[in-house]
Each structure stands twice: as structure tokens, then as C-alpha cells.
């Protein structure tokens, strides 16, 4: 259970902080991934989808990490979201080419999904033993 809660808190904090950075400094965040935000529409999209959505996911992970009864649900969401991000990023890398930013993000997403899956299996194994 400790691994599961650490994963939820670390990823929750990372998502929440990155989301807030996207809300309050979208141009700076866009520079990390070499995006150009050339219009109000593009800026608002980054603020909403990168900022609001990621901050919300971060809060969800943190919320689920606070109580043991919600940890399994939080891990399930983490496996689904991080796995989906990793899969889509892999497709993007294969179609559009490699970049250091995206390779590092893929490692983070894949590792988070894998560790969350392992933590889920450990929790399920304990439940079966009882």
C-alpha cells in the first residue's frame, strides 16, 4: 500500500504543479515541447487542456492517495491515463519523429503506468490472502 500511495502523491503533485504552470505561464510551458502558441485560441487551449485538465487529474490522484479505501480506484485511473498517454505518444513518435522531450515523457508515462499496475497487483494479492 505504501508504493501505491507514494505513486498517487508523486504523480498527483507532478500533474497539479504542471497543470498550474500551464494555466499561469502557457508560453513558458509551450517552449519545453517546442510548441508555438500564436493566437488567443491556442493559449486558451493550453490553459484549459494542459492546465485545467492536468491540475484536475493531479487533485484526483492526491485525493485518492489520502485514504486506503480509494487507493485502488486511483491506481486504476493512473494505469488507464498514463498507459493511454504512453500509447498515444508512441504513435506520435513513430509517425512524426523522435524528440528528447517526448522520449523523456514516454519514459515517465510508461514507468508510472507500469508501477501503478504492479501496485494494483500487490493490493489484489493481499486481498486474496485475507
Give the overall silhouette: globular
CA-CA gap between termini: 15 Å
Give the number of domains. Answer: 1
What characterizes the major β-sheet? none
The portion of residues assigned to helices is over 70%
- What structural class results from the helix and strand content? mainly alpha
**Low-pLDDT runs:** none
Q: Please write the string of helix (H) and strand (E) elements.
A: HHHHH
CA-based gyration radius: 16 Å
Strand content: under 5%
DSSP, total strands: 0
Could you name the key traits of this structure?
mainly alpha, 89% helix, 0% strand
Task: Report on the architecture of this protein.
With 130 residues, the chain is an all-alpha fold. The chain contains five helices and no strands. The protein has helices at 2-24, 26-32, 40-66, 68-96, 100-129. The longest helix is centred in the C-terminal third of the chain and has 30 residues, at 100-129. The protein is globular.
What's the topology here?
Elements: H1 2-24, H2 26-32, H3 40-66, H4 68-96, H5 100-129
Quick synopsis:
This protein is an all-alpha fold and 130 residues long. Helices cover 89% and strands 0% of the residues.
